Each structure stands twice: as C-alpha cells, then as structure tokens.
C-alpha cells in the first residue's frame, strides 16, 4: 500500500480526482479513497473500487427503471445505472456503476430467473477500463504472465484453462 496526499489549491480538483472514476498507472489499478475520521492509514481499506460494467443479453423486461431491484440482488453495491433517470438505456446493453471487491474474482456472467419460473437466463458482464488482471482466475493485481500457477507453462499451453479468455 502506498499512501499519498492529494492537496491542491482548489477543493473541487480533489473532489474530481476522488469521484472521477477508475485510475490506473502502467495498466495497474490505483484505488483512491477519502480518509475518514482522523485519517488513520492503518485502518483504511483499499479493497474496493468502482467500475462501469456493461450487462449484455439482458431481457427487455429488465430495461426499465425497476432495474435497480434486479441489480441490487446481483451486486453488493450499485452506485448508478446509466439512463435510469430518463428511463432510456443506451444501445443493447445496460451500463451499471458498481462497487467491486478487488480481492475477489471478477464475475463473468449472471444467472437470473427473471420471472421466478425456474428458467434461468445468462447475462454477460463486460468491465469498462479494466486494468491488468489474471485471465485464469479473474483477479485484479497480476497478469497471466505473473500468475504463480501459470509460471511453469507457456501461455499457449494453458490457453484452454483460461476462464476469462485471452
């Protein structure tokens, strides 16, 4: 963990940096967080960040303002849904601003039972501006070439074991 101070002449600049979204350097994730209370560095947690996630193949009945209920049941923390204010959603997918626990594998899809009739649909998840991550385990923080389980073989050799593609 590296801590630094974001001090500027304008408080608005600091706010833009903190809420401005996903930050990275050299394709590695940088988590920026506002200190709480006294700002004790040892108590601060940098294990969550926010991503825009595209949800593809969602049923048309989910493309309404009621999408919040659907999403909250599948993501721990939904910050925003693109187009939810106007009720119009872009293109053929939903864009959702969600909090992701970066120490857990990324979800590739969701299984949803929209009508409650036992018939599940699979919707695909695509993460926008995703930094480097492991294609084998879906973990942010190391690449396939740095993965301890993949170091003994070539990427081509283990390609069929990569759950997240390549």
UniProtKB/TrEMBL annotation:
<dbReference type="Pfam" id="PF14392">
    <property type="entry name" value="zf-CCHC_4"/>
</dbReference>
<feature type="domain" description="Zinc knuckle CX2CX4HX4C">
    <location>
        <begin position="101"/>
        <end position="148"/>
    </location>
</feature>
<dbReference type="InterPro" id="IPR025836">
    <property type="entry name" value="Zn_knuckle_CX2CX4HX4C"/>
</dbReference>
<dbReference type="InterPro" id="IPR040256">
    <property type="entry name" value="At4g02000-like"/>
</dbReference>
<protein>
    <recommendedName>
        <fullName>Zinc knuckle CX2CX4HX4C domain-containing protein</fullName>
    </recommendedName>
</protein>
């Amino acid at each position: 963990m590296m801590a630094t101070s974001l001090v500027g002449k304008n408080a608005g600049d600091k706010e833009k940096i903190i809420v401005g979204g996903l930050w990275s350097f050299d394709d590695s994730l940088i988590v920026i967080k506002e200190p709480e209370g006294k700002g004790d560095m040892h108590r601060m947690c940098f294990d969550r960040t926010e991503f825009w996630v595209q949800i593809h193949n969602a049923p048309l009945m989910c493309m309404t303002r009621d999408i919040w209920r659907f999403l909250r049941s599948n993501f721990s923390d939904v910050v925003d849904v693109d187009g939810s204010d106007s009720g119009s959603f872009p293109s053929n997918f939903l864009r959702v601003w969600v909090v992701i626990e970066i120490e857990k594998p990324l979800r590739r899809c969701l299984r949803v039972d929209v009508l409650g009739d036992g018939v599940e649909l699979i919707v695909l998840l695509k993460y926008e501006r995703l930094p480097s991550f492991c294609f084998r385990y879906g973990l942010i923080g190391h690449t396939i070439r740095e993965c301890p389980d993949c170091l003994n073989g070539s990427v081509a050799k283990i390609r069929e074991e990569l759950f997240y593609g390549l």
